[in-house]
Amino acid sequence: MAGGGYVVNGSTSNSSNGRLTMSVIITCIVAASGGLIFGYDIGISGGVTTMEPFLRKFFPSVLRKMADAKHNTYCVYDSQVLTAFTSSLYLAGLASSLVASFTTKRMGRKYTMVLGGCTFFIGAVINGAAINIMMLILGRIFLGIGVGFTNQATPVYLSEMAPPKWRGAFTIGFQFFLGTGVVVANVINYRTAQIGSWGWRLSLGLAAVPAVLMTIGALLVSDTPSSLVERGKLEQAKQSLQRARGVGINIEDEFIELLKSSEDSKLLTNEPFTTIFQRQYRPHLVMAVLIPFFQQLTGINVIAFYAPVIFQSVGFGSNSALVSAIILGLVNLGSIVMSMFVVDRFGRRVLFMEGGIQMVVFQVAVACVLGAKLGVTGDQQLSKGYAILVLILMCMYAAAFGWSWGPLTWLIPSEIFPMKIRPAGQSISIAVNFATTFVLAQMFLTMLCHFKFYAFVFYAGWITVMTIFVALFLPETKGIPLDSMHIVWEQHWYWHKFVDRKE
């Protein structure tokens, strides 16, 4: 049946069920902290766009709209220059994520994360010191390059280091740190908004702190066994695998499988970006494209970017809007933690589908409240009671995302690819994520202005489509060793027609 349970026939290594060692815990926590820089940026960019000194310096047209007593609530922040500030990061991230495919293969996962952290640091310094729009966007480009490298390398690193039994929880650690970054950024925005004319500089400049923490941490951990084997460092690879699985655990079978996968990779005559388009990798390519594409069409990132803007538009004051964004971030963070505890017990598909249904219900509910109380004219603000209701409904939506499409979008692409196309597959996944995010971030405030409350119905429709897609086409991958993952495609009702069973 579509995506049901699978049994991996044949031997698997004894180390697949090795104990959870302190080495692998520390290593994965350090690597997952790469999510901090992405989360901090998501949270900080939305918050500073509600600060009057920031808008006065860079986007005075938005302030003029806010001063117009007859403005349409939905259209206050409709500024293409303002959205360019937010979305320019994602064009840079798209390009750098494709380059990162080659750096992760040749330099390793570890040094790709280090490179990303250093580039992000440069962007944070430029943004904190920005004196004009061009400098502001240049800083965003450097931030995007850094995020592109870390987002490509970190999920792969986590997936390769974690034992199969706990792979889901460890990989979701990336999303946990991402959510933590969002919350920290929203708290900082709330405090810096009260400083005065230079508070926005502190918000943007403090992005250098998570960059430094992640970079130092990445320098202290070892690279993954898969990456070391791929680069011919066999003795280091064996030591890394032994530390990860624990002293006394027999790693010979798993190490042999890594060597075999590496040898198969070296036999390729085509580049990985060419190989992934072969028929036998059709399911991998489809998931690499559609999973991140669908995640952005849940609407979560544009809501995260513009949460303070949205809340301020529908009736909250500036400070209240920032507090509401903090609440939304905390709810999302709590649901990510819940996902870490259940993903390896109940599987990926259950979370995808339950989360999808819940998001549809509460997106439609938000649209109904805004439609009933603001209508299409948007010339009135919500009462305090209804504004709080909107916040509650959006928190329920954020919770559903936090335990489903949020973390699983990073987990699935990181675990489904064989070694030979893993960097290429992850790069495609990240590039699609950034490309879709750029388009949606660039158009969201205009869409909110023209679609009004129907913008939330638009996203609810897409969530319905993607939930059906998961039910039909995504196999369950929990507990399957990476080197045995091909079996889930061979046993799938549809994908078995494409997969080469002799692989």
From TrEMBL:
Keywords: Membrane, Sugar transport, Symport, Transmembrane, Transmembrane helix, Transport. It comes from the Eukaryota. One of its GO terms (molecular function) is symporter activity. Its main location: membrane. The chain crosses the membrane at residues 20-40, 81-102, 114-135, 170-188, 200-221, 285-309, 321-343, 355-374, 386-406, 427-447, 453-474. CDD domains: MFS_STP. This is Major facilitator superfamily (MFS) profile domain-containing protein. It comes from Aquilegia coerulea (Rocky mountain columbine).
